[in-house]
Amino acid sequence: MARQSYTNRTGALDSTSATTVYTVPDEKMAIIVGGNIMNASTDTVTLDIDIANASDTDFKLFSDYSFSQGVNTGIFPRPFFMDEKEKIKFTASAADKFEYWLSVAEV
User: Fold this and answer.
1) Which residues, in sequence order, are CB contacts of 50 under 8 Å at separation 6+?
2) pTM of the full structure
3) What's the confidence (pLDDT) of residue 1?
């Protein structure tokens, strides 16, 4: 029987470059069971969310997703399954505006 472990990823986006916020470890799969993004600023800003496969090819989940000041938004309202070495990347339109958390089960 596969062993399952649970982890959270939290952070703040401090640049406008694509930022890898989670990578599935080798020989594991992951289930993203929930997540949240918050615009912690007084500006309206946008965010791109990409999934990269094991070959590091990006696929858009959300593009130019707009957040008004102080808005909290849940992401991954349903379980999202990922294979080893796949990544979640966030790209913010402005630095130091977003805070996030992801809840992950690794198998």
Assistant:
1) 18, 58, 59, 60, 61, 88, 89, 90, 91
2) 0.91
3) 55
